[in-house]
Specification:
The complex is a heterodimer of chains A (753) and B (159). Chain A has 753 residues and is of the alpha+beta class. Helix content of chain A is 27%, strand content 23%. Chain A has a seven-stranded mixed β-sheet, with helices on both faces. A six-stranded mixed β-sheet of chain A has the order 8-13-14-15-7-24, sandwiched between helices. In chain A, strands 16-25-26-27 form a four-stranded mixed β-sheet, with helices on both faces. In chain A, strand 10, helix 6 and strand 11 form a beta-alpha-beta unit. The longest helix of chain A has 28 residues. The termini of chain B are far apart. Chain B is of the alpha+beta class and 159 residues long. Chain B is built from five helices and five strands. In chain B, a hairpin with a 2-residue loop joins strand 3 and strand 4. Classes of the chains: A alpha+beta (753), B alpha+beta (159). Chains A and B meet through helix 1 and helix 16 of A and helix 2, helix 3, helix 4 and helix 5 of B.
């Protein structure tokens, strides 16, 4: 560990120069000469039958080249998914306010908008299904009348509006409840929050006869976009080229093929390039934000603080289509179980379809609402038995070698250290001033696995190029983290390593920049490729230096003899002497998933947390008793991330995730009215945290290395967003003496409490 | 369609004669007609601050300003900040402190801060907060942006 020169250093990331001068090319900056402009007509109703769509006037408008409606698509076309229930364009029924009904391509953006206004749709409005819990009742109206006919993943428990019922059962909760000193119950609700990436979603498609169908996209997940584009074009995936463009923030939102398939079809019909931008109002209307939830918790506890049993029932509002709700439901199961030893646990998470936009993956999907419910509930448990909330947690947390609720055995567990360091930093035991209070939240989180592929090559100048199949979305995982891993492995400084993100024709298949997986998996693949490249370099040098490979080392851009460092050759000289031309190695990472007790879980598509990270956040707030205004005064976040590759980038992830979480705690809320219409579709009414709302955040890095990511690193990106709603809510509880069980905790809620 | 008009804009010290439509915003003219895509676009209603440019040294949301109203003013965009390819100390501080993640808000933050520091070389934290509360960053949590500004100010950087 001590010999490492690049790992653990605050090295500059590759993209920082271009991003500070305005030269960086984002998806929004990318255009093709002669392109057409795409636009989408969206349903003005949350739920309606579509009697007819008349596009003739739009088609007749000069400058409009294509209008697509459902009847222009292959009959019965449904998009790929865990449950194949989503059309590309609504045909007979619109299921949410903002659902795409038609798409146009025109010679200017203004013309495209004008054309949308000329499409006449005859709707018959229907009552909207709004509340997830009541939608589970047998007498509820159906969001999908044909739900039984859809193709669905095997083993998924689903019925009527319930698109997934994920469950965990450990021990015997009833027996636990019967034996305990106290039983505490509570219901917790959270609203949807939107990723609100600063750069819009944008795609440019070039699908021309005889050419490789190509879509330029600012997506986080090139190969899933490829699957969807290939599906609608009816061509093999391997023949579709998705080209990454610079990403200005994504946070899960840009995993989804919201526009690429439609844009590709528009381009094919037009015979020209088509560019589609989703305007902010459409993004807020019909993006893929976080699920709203309602959770009932019931906990049995002994007077000494020992947790005996816990039962949780969550209604996870999935919106109109299944999307990624089933996977997220099982992640919620694991978060509701928490990092605790509770011997008897029963958890039901119902993913429920309603007439709202399709909710999905936003930074830590399944996490923040579950952690909010569990961790604020635990404060109520502590209050009931007169125990300090910190002591209750310390008594029950999981440690090294312990078994989590799903039966997986935990190793490299830095949880206790995160708790101790975070609470010490904030002075947990010190009494708070009037109207002030401190709150805590603990948790665990996964490092998503799946395949990543990378190639390392020595270029003619003796520099190393790392080719990867997924894009940098802003975190620095690729342009900072992967680059440092490659530099360390190759004995170079970061300036001598160039990361290049490749399109899908490269075959560098990758499960994408998501799920706290990027550095661990892409970095691991790059490390493997570098290790192989290193061997190739040493083999070549062996002949040239006439020294055995075992007695050679590679550092500082040179191969040298360990016994006689004067005998050496630079990488540049080696590259030029290489008989086969450029040296090149390709490797993949496809790590073994965590094992767990299958008998405890049903219908869980994400049944275990791989190489878990552990975290503890503590907040101190001040509440104005007159206005109900909350100010976060201090915020400390401690994260066990295995191994710190670059502390600056790690702190950046923690600070950014915390602010998003504070937004969810105090101000952000995707609003629907009682009829199911979206109401706040701009950034004035949807309130994002600004600098004026935020405390300075103190990040504490805890390192309990794991054997997954390069140099021991675990995932990081999502976990900082899990805790602020719970930590802030608990701090408000301590400051006011009142419990707040619904997010966001607005001044109004506090003033009226 | 409205009648085109000719205007003259001075951007980063260069004067351009442009034929535009009267309703075009400065943001649109900078990006689409001058190819200065360093000025970023999203909300187009003055909420996010990504499109901030300096007009006679003052930060403005270029999405809210008709291009014609900028005639006769000095306009500075992010492309006009670095001199001869040399980053300014403020740009360097942003890069070194980790104040840049996705970077989409960065041009707006850099220009707003440059205006702040040239008027007030040693701002208090409160003054920094006040100046920058119209710029949204969704990645960094602001902590490192503030650190970068403090660091630049401590070095006596004016812009």
């Amino acid at each position: 560990m001590t010999q490492e020169k690049v790992i653990g250093q605050r090295k500059p990331r590759q993209d920082v120069l271009a991003k500070s001068t305005g030269a960086f090319v984002y998806g929004m900056d990318f255009q093709i000469p002669g392109q057409l402009y795409g636009a989408i007509l969206r349903s003005p109703h949350p739920h309606a039958l579509i009697r007819s769509v008349d596009a003739s006037r739009a088609q007749a408008l000069a400058g409009v080249e294509v209008v697509l409606t459902a009847k222009d698509l292959p009959a019965g076309l449904l998009m790929p998914g865990v449950v194949c229930d989503q059309p590309l364009l609504a045909s007979d029924r619109a299921r949410y306010h903002g659902e795409p009904i038609a798409a146009v391509a025109a010679q200017s953006a203004d013309l495209a908008q004008q054309a949308l206004g000329l499409i006449v749709v005859d709707y018959q409005p229907l009552p909207a299904i709004i509340d997830a819990e009541t939608a589970t009742a047998d007498e509820s109206l159906l969001v999908h009348e044909a739900w039984e006919t859809y193709q669905a993943e095997e083993g998924l428990v689903r019925w009527r509006n319930v698109c997934c019922h994920a469950a965990l059962n450990k021990g015997d909760v009833e027996r636990g409840f019967a034996s305990a000193d106290e039983i505490i119950e509570g219901t917790y609700t959270t609203e949807s929050v939107h990723q609100s990436h600063l750069e819009p979603r944008v795609a440019t498609a070039v699908v021309l006869p005889g050419e490789v169908p190509t879509v330029y996209s600012n997506t986080q997940l090139l190969y899933w976009i490829r699957t969807n584009v290939a599906h609608v074009l009816g061509v093999p995936e391997e023949q579709v080229r998705i080209v990454p463009t610079g990403i200005g923030g994504a946070f899960g939102s840009k995993l989804y093929p919201q526009i690429e398939p439609l844009t590709a079809l528009l381009s094919r019909v037009a015979g020209k390039a088509v560019r589609m931008v989703v305007p902010l109002s459409d993004e807020l209307l019909a993006g893929v934000p976080r699920h709203p939830t309602k959770t009932r918790l019931k906990t049995a506890v002994m007077r000494d603080g020992t947790l005996v049993a816990q039962q949780a029932t969550m209604y996870l509002d999935g919106g109109a289509y299944t999307g990624s709700t089933p996977e997220i439901a099982s992640v919620a199961v694991l978060c509701l179980a928490g990092p605790y030893r509770t011997p008897n646990v029963h958890i039901d998470v119902y993913g429920v379809l309603t007439n709202k936009t399709n909710f999905g993956a936003y930074r830590g999907p399944g996490g923040p609402y579950s952690v909010f419910a569990l961790e604020t509930h635990l404060d109520e448990v502590a209050a009931r038995i007169g125990m300090d909330p910190l002591d209750l947690r310390l008594k029950n947390i999981l440690g090294e070698g312990d078994e989590a609720a799903n039966g997986q055995i935990l190793t490299s567990v830095g949880l206790r250290e995160t708790v101790e360091r975070a609470t010490q930093a904030i002075g947990w035991r010190e009494a708070a001033a009037t109207n002030r209070g401190k709150g805590i939240s603990l948790g665990w989180w996964t490092t998503t696995l799946q395949r990543s592929t990378s190639e390392a090559l020595l270029d003619a100048n003796g520099k190393v190029v790392i080719r990867v199949g997924t894009n940098e979305m802003g975190t620095g995982a690729i342009m900072g983290g992967v680059r440092q891993v490659a530099a360390e492995t190759m004995g170079l400084d970061v300036d001598d390593v160039l990361i290049d993100v490749e399109d899908t024709l490269s075959g560098l298949w990758d499960w994408g920049s998501q799920g706290s997986r990027t550095l661990a998996n892409v970095g691991r693949a790059a490390q493997f490729a570098c290790q192989d490249l290193r061997l190739k370099i040493l083999s070549l040098a062996e002949k040239l230096l006439e020294t055995e490979r075992e007695r050679l080392d590679l550092a500082g851009g040179e191969v040298f003899s360990i016994d006689n460092p004067e005998e050496k050759i630079t990488l540049k000289a080696l590259a030029q002497l290489s008989p086969e031309g450029i040296l090149r190695s390709r490797a993949e990472s496809n790590a073994e998933p965590a094992t767990y007790d299958k008998s405890r879980l049903t219908s869980c598509l994400y049944p275990a947390f791989h190489h878990p990270s552990y975290h503890c956040h503590v907040a101190e707030v001040e509440v104005d008793p007159g206005t109900g205004m909350t100010r976060v005064l201090r915020y400390v976040a401690a994260h066990d991330i295995g191994r710190a590759i670059n502390p600056t980038l790690i702190e950046g992830q923690i600070e950014g995730g915390v602010v998003q979480g504070i937004g969810m705690a105090l101000m952000e809320e995707v609003l629907y009215d009682k009829q199911g219409f979206r109401t706040n579709i701009n950034w004035t009414d949807y309130k994002l945290p600004t600098l004026a709302d935020m405390p300075e955040i103190e990040s504490i890095i805890v390192e309990h290395p794991t054997n997954l990511g390069p140099y021991g690193s675990k995932g990081l990106g999502e976990s900082p967003a899990l805790h602020p709603p719970a930590a802030v809510a608990n701090a408000i509880g301590a400051a006011t003496g009142k419990r707040f069980r619904s997010l966001p905790i607005t001044p109004e809620k506090i003033a009226l409490a | 369609m409205t009648a085109a008009m000719t205007i003259s804009l001075t951007v980063n010290g260069q004067t351009h004669a442009l034929e535009i439509e009267p309703q075009e915003t400065l943001l649109h003219v900078l990006r689409a007609r001058l190819g200065l895509t360093g000025t970023k676009a999203n909300c187009e209603e003055g909420e996010c601050g990504a499109c901030t440019v300096l007009l006679d040294g003052q930060p403005v949301n270029s999405c809210l300003l008709l291009a014609v109203r900028a005639e006769g003013s000095r306009i500075q965009t992010i492309e006009g900040v670095a001199e001869d390819g040399q980053l300014t100390p403020l740009q360097e501080a942003f890069a070194a402190e980790g104040a840049i993640q996705c970077g989409y808000c960065t041009p707006g933050f850099l220009l707003t801060t440059a205006a702040l520091l040239s008027a007030n070389p040693h701002p208090t934290d409160e003054e920094i907060t006040h100046a920058l509360s119209g710029n949204i960053c969704r990645c960094t949590g602001y902590t490192k942006i503030v650190k970068a500004i403090r660091q630049a100010a401590a070095k006596g950087v004016r812009a």
